[in-house]
């Protein structure tokens, strides 16, 4: 009898996770590695979290070569660094790239209303969230394997796109752009076997969520949640793993709200 687990496994596949050492990104990186993928963890800035994450993933790998995971510094708003990221993953893991997950994101933690949003804040959010995703999608469309229908793209939006919560205008707009680009790309990749989907988490208990919020504000988000708690990165990662696997191969051009029922 065939195993029901086998379609979820990612043995022999190579994944790139941007923002791969962040709150949700680190959970995704660990989950994909646990499913058997080799993972390139992309980070920007302080290398310590990425290196610690990669060390932890590799500590359980007895094969040694190639490693289960590598850390690669890459600013996703820079096309040359995105190309270098894909090059590094291909070189480290044998040439083919099968999975792209774009978890890198920027948010203005002062949550300004649109009338008070600085142009620099808008540029930073659109640079990382919209342009960064665009550059990664463009590279993936040309680099992800088209052999055997194993190519998978998973981008990240936010349930905030639909909530119209004050203070999130530029951020939500940048994430709406991600949704549109991903769904169009899925159609443009017709015939390649590559799927492209969007995961849109709700409020998730990461440092990014708590930054700039008082305890009272954070408590209001929890009170609004039908399940009585915030999401956790470990709630999001299994959905990404499913979409990256053979089991998720019939899901394409979708935006999946992973938010515990929160609007």
UniProtKB/TrEMBL annotation:
Q: Which InterPro entries match?
A: KR_dom, NAD(P)-bd_dom_sf, Sc_DH/Rdtase_CS, SDR_fam
Alphabetized UniProt keyword annotations: Oxidoreductase
Q: What is an example of a Pfam family matching this protein?
A: adh_short_C2
Q: Which residues form a coiled coil?
A: none
- Tell me the GO molecular function terms: oxidoreductase activity, acting on CH-OH group of donors
Asked whether the keyword DNA repair is assigned, the reply is: no
Q: What is this protein called?
A: Ketoreductase domain-containing protein
**Start and end residues of each Ketoreductase domain:** 13-202
What family classification does the UniProt entry report for this protein? Belongs to the short-chain dehydrogenases/reductases (SDR) family.
The protein's organism comes out as Leersia perrieri
